[in-house]
Design goal:
The complex is a heterodimer of chains A (114) and B (114).
Chain A: E1 4-7, E2 10-13, E3 18-25, E4 31-37, E5 44-50, E6 53-57, E7 64-70, E8 73-79, E9 87-94, E10 104-105, E11 109-113
Parallel strand pairs in A: 2-11
Antiparallel strand pairs in A: 1-3, 3-8, 4-5, 4-9, 5-6, 7-8, 9-10, 9-11
Chain B: E1 3-5, E2 10-14, E3 19-21, E4 24-26, E5 31-38, E6 44-50, E7 56-58, E8 64-68, E9 73-78, E10 87-95, E11 98-104, E12 108-113
Classes of the chains: A mainly beta (114), B mainly beta (114).
């Protein structure tokens, strides 16, 4: 079992809905990441949070809004998504940003946009 | 820009066969190198990593990888595969100056038949 917990595991939403993805870790990690993985493709970095502050935004559309309310929790708020946003969304964490420590991944949330 | 190439997209082996998966990266500076494995329906897990030192690194489950700097390669090997090694394998790289941006290769799907 992974130590990075993502909920929900599956999400189906319409293009006008607002929903949120949640990621939680209790390893004391201070860097957290969101990735997007399309089918048969590698994960692609979306956002990096370091000490609860957004440090990297890989030019992600504003319909994706990340939030880090505390050191253990990372959210991804979704609004007005497009069908091409259907993908597996992965959360990861590591001890601290800018370190050599490997990232620990969650199981992901499989998102389908109708 | 950094990139990672995995030339074997799909590998099919019988149990006890030897495995070698290729990984080449494109980046002129110092990098950290990783192999992750994704078993069916599971999260990405770290197999092994190379930061510095001995270019031959050993990981979990009998896997090893060799960093050849002159060839920009980090190939994954296992002398004798098992059915349980069936999974997707991703090579990943980050630059020493930007460790938060982990660049993944396109992945290699390994199928092992009994």
């Amino acid at each position: 079992d992974t130590e990075v917990t993502q909920t929900p595991k599956h999400l189906v939403m319409g293009m006008t809905n607002k929903k949120s993805l949640k990621c939680e870790q209790h390893m004391g990690h201070r860097a957290m990441y969101w990735y997007k993985q399309k089918a048969k493709k590698p994960p692609e970095l979306m956002f990096v949070y370091s000490y609860e502050k957004l440090s990297i935004n890989e030019s992600v559309p504003s319909r994706f809004s990340p939030e880090c309310p505390n050191s253990s929790l990372l959210n991804l708020h979704l609004h007005a998504l497009q069908p091409e946003d259907s993908a597996l969304y992965l959360c990861a964490s590591t001890l601290k940003a800018g370190s050599n420590q490997p990232q620990h991944f969650g199981d992901g949330t499989r998102l389908s946009i109708l | 820009a950094q990139s990672v190439s995995q030339h074997n997209h799909h590998v099919i082996l019988s149990e006890a066969a030897s495995l070698e998966l290729g990984c080449n990266y494109s980046y002129g500076g110092t990098v950290n190198l990783f192999w992750y494995v994704q078993y069916p329906g599971q999260h990405l897990q770290l197999l092994l990593k190379y930061f510095s030192g001995d270019p031959l690194v050993k990981g979990i489950k009998g896997f090893e990888a060799e960093f050849i700097k002159s060839k920009f390669s980090f190939n994954l090997r296992k002398p004798s595969v098992q059915w349980s090694d069936t999974a997707e394998y991703f090579c990943a790289v980050n630059a020493l100056w930007n460790t938060d941006k982990l660049i993944f290769g396109t992945g290699t799907r390994l199928q092992v038949f009994p």
